[in-house]
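#data-curation
PF: Archiving a pair of folding outputs for the training set. Convention for this channel: one message per protein, sequence first, structure tokens after, nothing in between. First:
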Amino acid sequence: MDTDVRRDVVPFRQAVRAWFGISLQTFGGPAGQIAVMQRTLVDERRWIGQQRFNHALNYCMLLPGPEAQQLAIYVGWLLNGTRGGLVAGTLFVLPGMLALLALSAVYVLWQDTTVVTALFAGIAPAVLAIVAQAVIRVAKRSLTHPVFVAIAGAAFVALALFGVPFPVVIAVAALIGWSAYRLAPHVFVSGNGHGGDGGAAPLIPDDALHHARPSGRSAGKILAVGLAAWWLPVAAVALFTGTGSVFTTQGLFFSGTALVTFGGAYAVTRPSAPHSPASPPPSSVRSTSPSTRSSPGPSPGLGGRSTCSSRSRGR
């Protein structure tokens, strides 16, 4: 692939250290994770421009699956090619997986104690504070015009009060944005291309385009790497635990869920909420949300709770 033979934008070891540091700070679900990447990659290190970051985030929101992890993979690919994307995506979920494993063990062993109950109850308001602070930080950089504020407010009312389906909200917002650009292009022009803060130019500026020409070979290689990273872990679990194990069932279930969960982690619990042998009941999903968001990494990892609950019931 052409993008792999180019020189790294930043030294690979430096990028690995940066992604590991980001992975340890990504608490509070996608809002907190995006805010951490915004601060680290855009504001502090100046590795990517503000507009490029926002455009990538908007694109990832349209894709099924966790948008924050997809954004990390994309930025990692821009910085260091395919290996950069794989490292960024892997480190993004690894600390959260280990933390969730520890929380699950604590819940199974001491779920009936007052201390653990109070601990998980106290996490909820802290999570809300983290998410609110992160949303405000991202909004200050993204909602740079009253038109954008109006669109965001209308989308919130449509989703929260009227229950409008997420794809409809996105389609209407895109139509409004397209119309606004045709009628008033100046609305979409920002200060200096980097949030208007007057800082140093980013290594990947907003106006930089991909130099690699599209090709079937390049697309096939990317597809092969993605499918391998997706299905090899599921195949390994099926090989070591059996095709009928709860781990394999959950792997297949959440692989299918990832294909239909548009809107990021905050929308992922709706498709996975109906009770099935591979998914927890809705009450379990609600009670697990604070604990999953208190661990770093993507928040909709509810499979561990389902497994732990089934084990505790079987003891």
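PF: Second:
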Amino acid sequence: MTAPAGATADTTTTTATTDTATATARAAAPAPAPPAVLDHPGWVAHFTAEAHRRSRRADPDTSRGATADPALWRSLQRFQVGEDGDGTQLIAKAEAFGDPAYTAALRLFVAEEQNHARLLARLLDAGGVPLLGSHWSDALFVRFRRLLGLRLELMVLLVAEVVAVRYYRAVRDGARDPLIAETAGLVLADEVRHVPFHCCRLRESLAALPRPLRAPAATGWRLLAVAAGGFVALDHGPALRLLGVGRLRFLLDGAALAGQVARELRTTP
């Protein structure tokens, strides 16, 4: 039904304001605080509590659809591919590590990543955008990870998490569509918690290295994270501009976060 001519603008403005407020409130809902120290049973309890909280939270309402520039949709398509995966190889390496609690925590982490893929798939569907079966950048990233042992694979995975934090923050804060902003906010809240989860395990792993190798390992990780951020800035530049974040700003913000994480990795557990 068509609204009266004099009421159309006011109705649209009110609806948009309500949608944005709802998206902000839902995306900002606090997650349980993660453990402060490396304690694998503690991480299991944390992830389990978050899974319970997530099961009681309704998914974002996709009935109104979503609209965005094609450049942003292409960017989200590629990130959706990157979130998908069963984590079989990673979990197998964790099982060989011999800590059942850590393996259990890692399985719950993988479940959260799979939920991200599901949320992004729903978002793309709401916008009438098809899923990508695969993307060369994700395929290359996965193949590279699988060639590594657990420690190095987790270091590469931590790079992806750090880049994802900056990316989803840009989408949450810069997207004009309420559904896109809300979905990005939900994913971001998880990614922010995933960084300390991997840091805790890697800090313990790096502490097992000979002392002269610990700082170079953390520095090497930081350089890899900055390089990955630069690649994303180049590859997703058009989408980042739409979100109000230039390539250079994205790179510098990511480099600053990588520096913080590298310092955390140098801390003795």
